[in-house]
Amino acid sequence: MSPTARVIKADYYEVLSVERTASDQELKSAYRKLAMQHHPDRNPGDPAAEEKFKQASEAYQVLSDPDKRAAYDRYGHAGVSSGMDGGFSGVSDISDIFGDIFGEMFNMGGAGRSSRAQRGRDLQYELTLTFEEAVFGKQSEIKIRRMENCSVCEGSGAEPGHGPTTCQQCGGRGQVRFQQGFFSIARTCPACGGTGSIVKDPCRKCRGEGRQAAEHHITVTVPAGIEDRMRIRYQGEGDAGRYGGPSGDLYVVVSVQAHPFLEREGNDLHYVLPISFPQATLGVELTIPTLEGETKLKVPEGTQSGTEFRLRNKGVPYLNDHGRGDLVVQVVAQVPTKLTKAQRELMRQLSETLTVENTPGSRSLFSKMKDIFS
Question: Which pTM value belongs to this model?
Answer without folding.
Answer: 0.60
